[in-house]
Design brief:
Elements lengths: L3 E5 L20 E2 L2 E2 H11 L4 E6 L4 H6 L4 H7 L9 H9 L1 E6 L6 H7 L1 H4 L4 E4 L3 E4 L5 H12 L2 E7 L9 E9 L2 E9 L10 E9 L3 H6 L11 H9 L4 E5 L3 E4 L3 H14 L5
Parallel strand pairs: 1-4, 1-6, 4-5, 8-12
Antiparallel strand pairs: 2-3, 6-11, 7-13, 8-11, 9-10, 10-12
């Protein structure tokens, strides 16, 4: 079983300014629950109970959220409002939380490498809170963990995107070895539509083997001068050690304002009103 999940939460969230000037984008609520809590719940449901947060300056609210607020608990104890804390209490009971700071923003690969002391020498999940994934069955990380048991290599979650949007994603090419499962042969970070090897884009769910840390240490900066996890994964893919998985569920790009609004409306209509 994979026991740990890494959460890169150090980004600035500039697409949501001015809201994110003093509040982490990961704490923006989808209805009444912050984005990062949805991700933590998904990880814990997959058995990844150790949640390793790669944070940055101004992100203390995230670590505070996954702690007890004695003053708040005291004020609402015994009232009807106490039920609103049920979901976070469940997370705190089941999860273990640790954090490390990413002092410079040098890309997702750098963020993952920064989290190495919290992970150690074992396979681990990576979850990007910007990508909210919802379904009525097993979560995306649960699906991927089962696939890891079969293949014992790095796994990336993918979905089809319009060809004109490939410049927003890492894109894979590979051989289909089962329905929705590909052995990756090539990965390109943010290719122009004319250069994209397919329209299968990587989204914010990964399972990585621990050798990725040594690979990242030797990976030169790529697109935008950042250390890209896609470039490091390409090294593994050249050895046939990366699987891409077309997951079951619906993904919302909550790193963009339209995606955030769409997710809020969807959760309100399909989950919040059903309580």
């Amino acid at each position: 079983m994979i026991k740990k999940c890494l959460f890169p939460v150090a980004g600035y969230g500039t697409r949501f300014l001015p809201a994110t000037k003093s509040m982490p984008k990961e704490m923006l609520p989808i209805v009444n629950k912050p984005l990062v809590q949805y991700g933590v719940e998904e990880a814990i449901a997959a058995g990844m109970r150790t949640c390793a947060m790669v944070t940055g300056r101004g992100k203390r609210t995230i670590t505070d959220h996954f702690d007890i607020s004695y003053e708040l608990e005291h004020q609402i104890s015994g009232s009807g409002k106490e039920a609103a804390l049920a979901s976070i209490r469940d997370v705190l009971e089941k999860g273990v939380f640790a954090s490390v700071r990413q002092r410079e923003m040098k890309g997702l690969g750098h963020a993952i490498l920064t989290g190495e002391p919290l992970i150690g020498n074992e396979p681990f999940g990576v979850l990007l809170s910007d990508d909210l994934c919802l379904n009525d069955g097993p979560g995306v990380l649960t699906q991927m963990a089962a696939l890891y048991e079969q293949f014992q290599c790095s796994i990336v979650a993918i979905q089809e995107v319009p060809k004109e949007d490939t410049h927003k994603y890492g894109v894979i090419a590979g051989e289909a070895i089962a329905e929705g499962v590909y052995r990756v042969s090539d990965m390109v970070e943010k290719p122009a539509p004319a250069d994209a090897p397919s329209n299968l884009a990587i989204i914010g769910r990964y399972i990585l083997t621990p050798d990725i840390f040594d690979i990242l240490r030797n990976t030169e900066p790529g697109a935008n001068g950042e250390i890209q996890i896609t470039d490091a994964l390409q090294t593994q893919a050249e050895e046939g050690r990366v699987i891409a998985y077309q997951f079951a569920g619906r993904r919302f790009d909550c790193g963009s304002v339209p995606g955030f609004v769409e997710a809020t409306n969807f959760v309100y209509d399909n989950y919040y009103l059903q309580k």
